[in-house]
């Protein structure tokens, strides 16, 4: 069986026939999207083994239902990207006996899919923080108002 470290180093567009046994660390809620007028669903998971962790994306609802957080699964016929395993309708997902994984790998993997909430900071600190950083602001709403935009006709 391939390890997660081997999967990260290779990327394919054809499905792998070799089975891969992984422990499901965390899952996100399914997201809906529309493609060619058809409503579809995608769900992301974080999986790991003794060598590391990798994101798993399922585009098939029946396969996503078989992948449950805290269980070990074997997957076949999956597609690999450098940092992602893709499970489609052609993939196979089987339940497997439990596997032991280092707690540090599990903690790191879980924090990537579900990052911890940052501590609240004040407004001047947020203004000076780098762009695209996760920030939490705590405060009290003192006024709620809205802006009305309208055009005034004028003659030239």
UniProtKB/TrEMBL annotation:
Origin: domain of life: Eukaryota
Residue span, HIN-200 domain: 19-111
Record-linked InterPro entries: HIN200/IF120x, NA-bd_OB-fold
Name of the protein in question: HIN-200 domain-containing protein
Source organism per UniProt: Holothuria leucospilota (Black long sea cucumber)
Source species taxonomy: Eukaryota, Metazoa, Echinodermata, Eleutherozoa, Echinozoa
């Amino acid at each position: 069986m391939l390890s997660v470290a081997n999967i990260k180093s290779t990327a394919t567009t054809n499905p792998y026939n070799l089975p891969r046994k992984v422990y499901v660390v965390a899952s996100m809620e399914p997201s809906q999207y529309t493609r060619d007028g058809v409503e579809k669903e995608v769900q992301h998971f974080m999986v790991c083994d003794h060598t590391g962790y990798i994101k798993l994306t399922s585009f098939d609802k029946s396969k996503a239902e078989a992948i449950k957080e805290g269980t070990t699964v074997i997957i076949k016929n999956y597609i690999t990207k450098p940092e992602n395993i893709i499970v489609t309708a052609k993939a196979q997902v089987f339940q497997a006996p439990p596997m032991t994984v280092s707690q540090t790998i599990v903690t790191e993997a879980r924090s990537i899919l579900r990052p911890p909430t940052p501590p609240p900071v004040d407004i001047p600190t947020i203004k000076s923080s780098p762009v695209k950083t996760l920030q939490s602001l705590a405060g009290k709403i003192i006024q709620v108002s809205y802006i009305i935009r309208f055009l005034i006709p004028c003659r030239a």
